Write the structure tokens for this entry.
Amino acid sequence: MRLKQSVLLVFGILLILAGIALQYAGIAVESAAIVALVSAGVVMAIVAVITGSSRQDEVLSDERTKRIGAYGTTYSWVLTLVLILAFLWLDFLGLASFNLQGTLLVLLFTMLISARIFQWYLFRQGDVA
């Protein structure tokens, strides 16, 4: 594990411990701050472990992989914007009613999953024009 991942892991654990300490000290009982601290700490720890366990010897990125990643992410943004416009029109025309949590969840998963799918597809194609 490199220094960057080690620092991220330690900082994540410190955030988790800070959230737990706030809970047990009674400073922020049933507060969103506790959930935010613990959630951020867990995410940082998971990211540190995943990135630290990747293979060290292989090339992680070159011009081709960066370009494919950028194109896949761009296609994902375009798809998400089209989905936002579809939600707006469905709501405007009265065809559907959406709550905020469900809408944000659908948009988040659409962005994440479509970015990976587009990048996977472009990697299989070989290169982007």
Remarks:
- Helices lie at 3-25, 32-52, 63-92, 100-125.
